[in-house]
Amino acid sequence: QKEVEQNSGPLSVPEGAIASLNCTYSDRVSQSFFWYRQYSGKSPELIMSIYSNGDKEDGRFTAQLNKASQYVSLLIRDSQPSDSATYLCAVSLRSNDYKLSFGAGTTVTVRA
Amino acid sequence: GAGVSQTPSNKVTEKGKYVELRCDPISGHTALYWYRQSLGQGPEFLIYFQGTGAADDSGLPNDRFFAVRPEGSVSTLKIQRTERGDSAVYLCASSPGTRGEQYFGPGTRLTVT
Fold it and tell me: To 10 degrees, the CA torsion angle through B94, B99, B100, B101?
């Protein structure tokens, strides 16, 4: 079983819709959770971090964490063509070593 | 402010050669990480520095890979006797050391022919 798994996509949504991205992780002691956006040919860009159960909102992005279910998600509201990218879920498995384990990413395409 | 910088941006080398990849982290960031990313995959952890010392090198695939950070700032990833399977984008990230938020540089695309 992979440490971090994401729905493989690709995910195509119309402009203005909500894009929903899912991620599960295998290690129950995971402490920190991140979403990165990666445009084609570019490096990952941090867009959200979440550390405790519940929702965290930042602009059009909402991250949701459920540690009991070992599940973290990202919602992108009012999707724009500029949101078209690969979204990477990353998990830090230990509290004293922040190395990240990444999922393979979900590619999102926003149709104008 | 300036982000993480990496040089070179691209490196083409022949199988068996030695290469060095450089990372200059965000000023003041104490933690530095190296990852590599193959096409269609997420980044894969290689090594983590806290200050000058390698706190975790469990991701280095074999003893051909080595990294240093002698003064606690710039880091160099060194690969000996390169193999075609080493071809990937090598990413460096730095973190202020709190909460683990990591900021990536633009990467070095290594191609071994």
Answer: -60
B107: CB partners within 8 A, 6+ apart: A43, B6, B9, B37, B89, B90, B91, B92
Of A2, A9, A31, A6, give the one whose Cα is nearest residue A108. Answer: A9
> Which residues lie below 8 Å from residue A96, measured CB to CB, with a gap of 6+?
none
Which of the four pLDDT bands, split at 50, 70 and 90, describes residue B2?
Answer: confident
Residue B26 pLDDT greater than 70, yes or no? yes
* CA–CA distance, B83 with B111 (Å, rounded to integer): 9
Interface test with A, best of B23, B34, B45, B94 (most A CBs within 10 A): B45
HEC per residue, A41-96: CCCCEEEEEECCCEEEEECCEEEEEECCCCEEEEEECCCCHHHCEEEEEEEEEECC
Quick one: pLDDT at residue B33? 96
Find which of A95, A100, A106 to mutate to test the B interface (most B CBs within 10 Å of its CB). Answer: A100
Q: What is the mean pLDDT of chain A?
A: 93
Determine contact, residues A4/A25, Cβ cutoff 8 Å: yes
